[in-house]
Give the backbone structure.
Amino acid sequence: MNAPRAQQGVVLLIGLIILLLLSLLAIGSIRSTTLEERMTGNSQDQQIAFQVAEAALREAEMMLGQPMLPPFVDVGDANADGFYLPDPPNGDAPDTVYRPLWLRTAADARNPVWRAASVTTDAPPAPIDRARGDYLIEQLDMQEEASPGESLQADSAEDRRERVIYRITARAWGAATADQAAPAVLLQSTFKR
């Protein structure tokens, strides 16, 4: 008969090392999954914000397609509801940095009022119903157009008419960023009427 050998605990030490390695792999996998889930959520939120901004842009275009337009006012007018007359740079103050109407913030002296878009009013349940968007419309320029087949240089173009060009700016926040101050998506288009 052989004498019993003393146990040295090598198996226990190897088992603990393997358990530690498996724990580190599991923690890395959980972190990776969490990161991918956040990325997917942010991507979905960005897509929602883009769709809301695009819908707000279309809503403003439909507003401009109506026979009667609401009154357009100067920036700073108390009755402003997102419809503005041209606001060019101030020629008397050439050192003042001009900011386009759609880039102005609450810190600017002449800050515009944006019109809330109704695109999420009848939206399906979460998360789209938490998204929001708004727009403003600027009257930019009047342009004379000739009737079809005539040039503007012709002396007697009887069917000439003036067209007004508008700039529509729509901005939207996605569902998860609805309380943040910075817009997630900003879209613009021009409309000739």
Remarks:
- The mean pLDDT is 80.
- The first helix runs from residue 10 to 64.
- Residues 11-192 form one domain.
- Strands lie at 83-84, 115-116, 132-145, 161-173, 185-192.
